[in-house]
Amino acid sequence: MRLLPIAAAQVLPLCSTLHVPFHISQGSIEEVQNVLIVLRDAEGCESIGEAAPFPVLTGDTQQTALPACKQLVGAMIGRTPAAALQWIHAELWPAFSQTPTALAGVELALWDLHARQMGVPLGALWGRAQLCSTETDITLPRLAPEEVADFYRHFAEYQFPFVKVKVGGGSVDDDVARVMALRACTGPGLRLSLDGNQGLTESAAAMLVERLAAHQVQPLFFEQPLPAEDLAGMARLCQRIPVPVCADESVRTVHDAIRVFEARAAGMLNLKFMKSGVRESLLIAELARRHRIPLMIGGMVESEIAMTASLHAVCGTGLISVCDLDTPFFLTERFTQSSPYHGRSAQLVLPSGNGLGLSLRNALY
């Protein structure tokens, strides 16, 4: 084990078209425009990270994340990964609050390099569970009912355990029609969750659950139906509907998680590296463990690079029971030589090797 300083870095655009546009209640992504971070130490050991902006959710874009990543990694030359991580956590989070995905992407690259230098898989730095695989769901974007069958045919062979259906941003009738179009494809055994991305009112969210119940459809949980700051409404909804409410956009920091717990505004939390960073996400996970609150993990529209980091968190900590790690399946491009996403299966198997366990395709740089 040799903890060497960072000697070189590259920051590059990471772009891909999508098999299906990713429409949610707050906006949509037609093409992935992310950022790749590559770090190398003095002996040529290479690590990778990814920043994945989703402007309507993260507030930044590829155009803002690229220069922010370059500024960050430029200042880290000569520091060891561990020292650079400490510096980020102690001093930089407030200064880069407008580009959260840049910080998260650089943080991922630093963790990857640190794990590679330590000679261990990334998840081993984050816990002792050391699981080797998990299953992910698949997300049905806000598609028109007549588009759902094509979506289902594209992904049916993957055998996803359940489907997360994007709702909100339109009428309850539209959302019910989308769910029923999906059930027409799957049959009565459909298992699903709902994700509002802050796009519903309290009454509309309750009505949607009631309308679905009339069709013998009960979601596993309802993710962020109301605006992030409406904890009182979320708390009332927890008492009003027969399915758990999961907080996502309401929880970016440990402080946010404490506020949600105190308000009794959710029965689950959704972790995302791109909204909270790695260290803060792990702290939220530990807090949820102490409060016995179930966890899920998701992301923005990320490639196999960032999503494999989240998979390491699942397998390392053993604290996350629901996985929404599906977005690499939406991308038409693969950026690594192999990954858990190179197959066509909901079963995600952790790569072997140190760090992330991923190697970039040579054509990328």
SSE inventory with pairings:
Blueprint lengths: L5 E19 L2 E15 L4 E6 L3 H4 L3 H13 L6 H12 L7 H19 L14 E3 L2 E3 L4 H11 L7 E4 L5 H15 L5 E4 L6 H13 L7 E2 L7 H10 L4 E3 L6 H10 L4 E4 L1 H4 L1 H14 L3 E3 L6 H14 L4 E2 L23 E3 L16
Parallel strand pairs: 5-6, 6-7, 7-8, 8-9, 9-10, 10-11, 11-12
Antiparallel strand pairs: 1-2, 2-3, 4-13
Helix pairs in contact: 2-4, 3-4, 5-6, 6-7, 9-11
Question: How would you describe the overall organization of this protein?
Answer:
The structure is a single chain. Helix 5 packs parallel to helix 6. The mean pLDDT is 94. It is built from twelve helices and 13 strands. The strands form three sheets. Strands 5-6-7-8-9-10-11-12 form an eight-stranded parallel β-sheet. The protein has a three-stranded antiparallel β-sheet with strand order 1-2-3. Strands 4-13 form a two-stranded antiparallel ribbon. It has 365 residues and is of the alpha/beta class.
Q: What's the gist of this structure?
A:
It contains 12 helices and 13 strands. It is of the alpha/beta class and 365 residues long.
Q: Say how many strands there are.
A: 13
What does the average pLDDT come to? Answer: 94
The string of secondary-structure elements, in order, is: EEEHHHHEEHEHEHEHEHEHHEHEE
Q: What distance separates the N and C termini? A: 28 Å
Q: State the helix count.
A: 12
Class per helix and strand makeup: alpha/beta
Q: What gross morphology would you assign? A: globular
Q: Which blocks of ≥5 consecutive residues have pLDDT under 50?
A: none
Biggest sheet features: 8 strands, parallel
